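Subject: for your reference before the review

Hello V.,

The reviewers asked for a structural picture of the protein, and I figured it would be easier to keep everything in one thread rather than splitting it across files. Below is the amino acid sequence we used in the manuscript, unchanged from the supplementary table.
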Amino acid sequence: MFYTRRELAVRFSYLLAGAAIAGAVGGLVAYGVGYMDGLRGLRGWRWLLIIEGLPSVCLGVLGWFLLANSPESAWYLSPSERQLLVLRVTRDEREASVPSAKVLHQADVVAALKDWKVWAFCALNFGADLQLFSYSIFLPTIIQALNPAWSTLYVQALTVPCFAWSVIVFGCVAYISDAMQHRAVFGILGSLASIVGHAMLMAGQSVAVRFAGCFFVATGLFVVAGTALVW
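And here is what came back from the structure prediction:
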């Protein structure tokens, strides 16, 4: 662990921002790769796997050798920087828990399974992840349903501002959440925004209202999932 618990929300927002950016440009890449169908005897979907999968595989291999497992093994930091990181994390762990909390006890596991708050959190996280991945995967389909006459490229372009908005919102919320050291209220507000967005998508009569619903859903998309995991 390189960061204290007071810094996790902002750092986690960087990770989810990458996922949102991938969602924003992935559709456009897939559309362009579609025109490569038959190139050098390969189908378009094969080119898509090569173009999107090869960088992931290469970076994954490089990450195994380049990324540090702990501040002590961070070769890219100076000795003083490594020492500072260790001191910060150690102090944070000392403030957050007692020594016995570092050992897993059977009684603690049983107590957790009996705690209704654990199950409530599981339900919350399940709902947040369900919304996150279904929105990320099916947003082009949702937008296409607003007006079937829209071209595929136009639909893919309309997904970009939705994902961009979600990144901006979660970035701001993560910064405020870390500064206040409070998670629950932001998760609740994000959930309410997404509920309003889903209602607009289901009950809206005009294209503008339903497209605005996509932004309301995006408002709570990463906020709910992100704050829940950091919490």
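For the response letter, the relevant points are probably these. The longest helix spans residues 116-146. Helices lie at 8-33, 44-66, 79-96, 106-114, 116-146, 152-180, 184-203, 207-230.

Happy to draft the paragraph if you're swamped.

O.
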